[in-house]
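Changelog entry

Holo records now carry the ligand SMILES as an explicit input line rather than a separate metadata file. Below, a converted record for zinc ion, shown in the new format.
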Amino acid sequence: MNKLEIIPLGGIGEFGMNCMGIRFGDEMIIVDAGMGFPEETPYGVDISIPNFDFLDDYADDLTALILTHGHEDHIGALPYFLKKFNLPVYASRFTLALAEKRLSEHKMLDDVLLHRVEANDVSKIGNFEIEYIHASHSLVDCFSLAIKTPVGTLIHTGDYKIDETPVIGKPYDLKTLKKYGDEGVLMLLADSTNATVAGRTPSERAVIPAFEEIFADAEGRIIVSTFASSLHRLQVVLNVAHAFDRRVCVLGRSMQKNFEIATGLGLLDVPHNTLIELGESRSLDDDQIVYLVTGSQGESRAALWNMASGNYKGLGIEKGDTVILSARIIPGNDRAISRLIGEIYKHGGNIIEEKRRLIHVSGHASQEDIKIMTETVRPKFVVPIHGEYRMLFRHKEYIKNHVEGYTDENIILIENGDILELDANSAQVVAHNDIGKSFIDEAHLGEIDYEIIRERKKLGFSGLITLVVAVDRETKKLKSEPQLTVQGVAGINPLNGLLQNARQSIADIITETKRDKYQNKNFMAETLRVHLKRMIQQETGTKPVIVSTVVEV
Ligand SMILES: [Zn+2]
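Structure line, unchanged by the conversion:
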């Protein structure tokens, strides 16, 4: 079979969990292994990852895992992936440094093979030849990929924006992309996160003027919160702080760790005498200090939330403080952030959000950037990836309406689990698999089955009834009154007689069951459970979880 298959495991039609299989013959590479933030967090899980069990059937084909960049939605599932399939990993130095941090938390750093690659390096992996192309994004050392396959060349953008003046590093390497465009590209798989946003995405430098104005006006302490991986932003804060004679104190575990990694790799340029420890910072005047902290998403364990709610190692938000939230709201975090802002106001702090000032720019391509990308690569087919369905759809519509030569025929919308088959001239979805996701409880770094979450949801939604019945080992007759315990079930109370009726009807069933019909205690327990379930549903309209046990004494 001389066809190429593209199989997305996550990241299509949803935010996060980016992961894609690319297969030719009996060889398959994987691009990215990301995590997501599931709606199911109230049920005791922290993150979700693609269900990698799907790849069991391809286990012998898997040859390599390529990481485009170090964001959690691209590398967060790495330890869980590698525990199942221990493949060699190819990534840039900063991506690898972040990946190593994750792997060491799982104590698996010694068991995996990590290849550090640089922009314009080429890896020959079986049938695939992969060139890493320098991409601009909100963090550094990011790649788009040119993947040469026997049927043609794929361009996978990873996450990108077209930044001509990034704070750190070079602009997007459009030249190499254009070179591939000139040679002929079969398919472009392109980031859709900002496909609903008009115009161009501003450069990372665009935030500098607003930071300068805020620093010029602030008389008290300045607290900046952003993502620990947004190195361009961290560099801007360092530079502006230095220019305004403020010193920078870095707080929060992930911020401190990333600072250490980035300065160690020479990616961050820390102006002389700018960084300061927490202890020392306390002796400075308010207008001499900037706290650079984690927690821009309102995370309850992060430094900013603890400061806002009164105490982080003795620091709290006070009147006169200026808090700059230099990050976007990740979908689902709106409430937590709103609560955070409320706390900051309550303690007298002033908040500056991206709605009011240009203190944050996106790391993703807007519509005009998407147009530039498509025109530079001029692929035969376009497949929008990375984003909710609405964004994928708008990506398609925008190209159809604004780039010549693209129609419904050559812009293909796919879903997680689809098998998109292509040869040199055609591309079509030939099959679909339900892949689903797994959940992770981070405290135990372990996976939790979806069935357990389903059960927890049911318990939380309609409560629990426990039934215990004791029968005589010999006669199989009832030994005592059935025991019923009810927790969180609406419509049942000691006065309405429902429990009494239930006990009676259960006793009746046991009395009426002939000895030869009894079979065994588990069968009896299931019969009673089904009976009770019907009865409760009929009387109260609810469907609680019912646990039924028969003990023989
Ligand atoms: Zn990203």
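Spot-checked after migration. Residues 332 and 534 are 37 Å apart (CA to CA). The first strand starts at residue 4 and ends at 10.
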